[in-house]
Amino acid sequence: MTAAGERAPPAEQQTTGEEKMRLLKGAAFLTSVASVGMIAGFGSTLAMAKKRSPEWFQKGAMATAAAPEAGVSLALRALGWGSLLSCCGVGLLSFTAWKLLGAHSLSDSRHRMQSVFPSIPKSSGSAAGSEPVDWDAVFKSK
User: pTM higher than 0.85 for the full model?
Assistant: First the structure.
């Protein structure tokens, strides 16, 4: 029982709030993992380039008379534009597919995609743990 004049939220609204919180936590986790992966990959690539040829790395880091813009700033600008265009392109493609399906929510979109594409039949032999895979036979040259 709640205080006078207040109503307890229906169970349906509570589950919707819990689902939204779970979705936000999942999105935050995936975003942080992807960001750490990008930073680690970019940093290791820079470290490898500097280790292989430090003199060329220094020439690319500073602007000269021959190249008025430093190579690093040019590369970062290209990376920024490429990232922006790829994210916008994937977003536009996803939005277009969503509108073509006529979906109104993510769960509705999932159900409509399942109705459009054929289901993958599950055979008894492909069940997890049915029998171990012989990797030598899989990668054996013919």
Answer: no
